[in-house]
Amino acid sequence: MAFSSSAALWFLPFVLPLCLYVAYTDLALMKIINKAVVTLGAIYVILGPFVLPSIEAYLWGFAQFAIALGVGFVLNAIGAMGAGDAKFIAFAAPFIAPGDLPRVVLLFTCILLAALLTHRGARASRLRDLAPDWVSWSQGKRFPLGLALGPTLALYLCLSALNGA
């Protein structure tokens, strides 16, 4: 992993609860709350200069944010993903080392598949009765992508903390 192990350890206590919150709110409401993504961005802005290995790494995170926001805007405009999903991806982008992008794509793919199968299985079973008011149960083909996005960032930071640079 190219991301700094010590930076991941510093970010994790603040980012992990947000990742879980994003997964929950997307399941329950089919929305990723703006306060969650803005808080994620604030964590990067405040802690980044102190915990990342260089000012260049910190500043590169803002470029990654802008690139991800632009791509997310286009994907949202063509209906490929929700606005909350696009915003979460943009605000999560600075936490990912550019060299780790192929690993993150693979990690996301695996988590997305597991989340989709789990969500669809739970929706079709009696497990649905545990949270009968969740909006995601009644959305047809729509899927709460935050259920995969939040855990992807959380697991990436955990793996970086264990195996990072």
From TrEMBL:
* Annotated TM spans: 6-24, 36-55, 61-83, 104-122, 142-162
Q: Which domain of life is it from?
A: Bacteria
Any one GO CC term of this protein is: membrane
Transmembrane found in the keyword field: yes
- Regions annotated as coiled coil: none
InterPro entries assigned? Prepilin_IV_endopep_pep (IPR000045)
The Gene Ontology terms for molecular function here are: aspartic-type endopeptidase activity
Tagged with keyword Transmembrane helix: yes
Q: Which UniProt keywords apply?
A: Membrane, Transmembrane, Transmembrane helix
| Residues in Prepilin type IV endopeptidase peptidase domain copies | 15-115
Q: What is this protein called?
A: Prepilin type IV endopeptidase peptidase domain-containing protein
Could you tell me which species this protein originates from? Roseobacter litoralis (strain ATCC 49566 / DSM 6996 / JCM 21268 / NBRC 15278 / OCh 149)
